[in-house]
Amino acid sequence: MSSDTATDAAPPAGATPAPEAPNPWAQRLRRFGYAGAGQRTARERLIAPFPAPRTRVWQAVGLTPAVADRLARWSGWAGPLLVALLAGALRFWHLGSPRAVIFDETYYAKDAWALLQHGYEGAWPDNANQLILGHPQRIPLGVDPSYVVHPPMGKWVIALGEWLFGLTPFGWRFSVAVLGTLAVFMLCRIGRRLLRSTALGCLAGGLMAVDGLQFVMSRTSLLDLIVMFWVLAAFGALLIDRDASRARLAAALPEDGRPDARAAAGTRLGWRPWRIAAGVLLGLACATKWNGAPYLAAFGIMAVLWDAGARRAAGAPHPFRAMLRRDASPAFLSLVPVALATYLASWSGWFATDNGYFRHWADGRGGTWSWIPAPLRSLWHYQHQVYDFNIHLTQPHTYQSNPWSWLVLGRPVSYFYESPKRGQSGCTAPGGCAREVLALGTPLLWWAACLALLFLLFRWALRRDWRAGAILCGVAAGYLPWFNYQERTIFLFYAVVFVPFLCLAVAMMVGAMLGPAGATERRRMWGAVGAGTLVLLIVWNFIYFFPVYTGMTIPMDAWRARMWLDTWI
Question: Where is each Protein O-mannosyl-transferase C-terminal four TM domain found (predicted)?
């Protein structure tokens, strides 16, 4: 073989590929901010290290270097814990107020109690709310089944609080407040892992702690915040799985960290328990409300794309082919069948009883599918009826809104409203007062999130930043599906499911405002001023709207001052 022919031959397996020259298209994109991958080893691209904790702040307040180092190392857990404690204090403050059945609590609080007593949702008389809140309390739960349009998992969560504290406003809101608080803690940890910064992770959690929509939903016995909790936990489990699988792939590379085509394409990533945990969590989301299903699809696609990216970084010449051969089937089995089994398990109470709605619908029925056990066919019929109801729900409602208006908070939902006169409910204003629980996101946070999403689109499209893509995936899966139901009666509070990802988007934008590590002191100073101002304004905005998040009695003029848009009334 001649030397010329040898030069054109394919490189041997395991050889380090030569760096490619930028193509003309990439050179054009650089004019608009595009940046290719940096010059790093394959192992460095696979494993992004956490930066060493800084001790400068602790030493500045007079602590010794040893103590400062210990506190800095603990900050990864202590910071999120402090943010969560603040969030919990806010959410449990006067949790039983207002002492009323507000908005759709009239369905879920009573359904949860029925599950606790019977294992299925039972029928209630029309005056049940008055009897439950009366003195003495009466609980007029019957034994007849009730037709419900949401799966039971979220109501079982609500039932736990009722089991502990009874069928009272505090009891039916307790479990949701716990999950709302834990979600803040999780978001701090997830943000830390995603952005590789304890400060930015705590900022993301802190922003959600002061978001009005998440706050109100954490204090109301509805299902949507429970869906959000499961979805966020699944996202965190997939992040942990991503880091673990990439570390396993990096360990298979040569010691010098160079790419290796054989290891990249052939390494089996083995047992991945965190991906199975994500399947269980996504199943719980679907078993709470069906708007968890788009996350199962979106996160499944995101997970296998992460695998393809990992194999590309390790040196696989055909990363998608390697992903399809090694990762796609295990990913599907870890997510979809696990989620389906979890969903079916959530109906255990319905299966175990004889009085559940449609429980014996398939008994004695023949037909093509008669070989399937009758309880499963009955459940399938029930699910079909629920699906038909949900897609044809077009009855007008005062507070319905189109998803086009959600990000700018066009039409929030009033869960509770009273206008006490002077001398009633603590009102001292001559012109009367107002009490309202308004499911409204903190306006400055949401409007800043609109800018942050545009920034993330830039980072994802032109900087190939996978973190931006992951956050956008979380927003898109909870937001875009609702555009398919333009005629359906839908509400702004459905958006609480993707609030954590809006907070991550703002935190990532704030990180960019602070500037890169190599920026000048002047650049970082002005970045800190801008970022600090934004965060302080968001916190002030939450404090300003706090009375209309919690149903406090305020003068009517003060209430009107908080109705910034006519559509909020």
Answer: 376-568
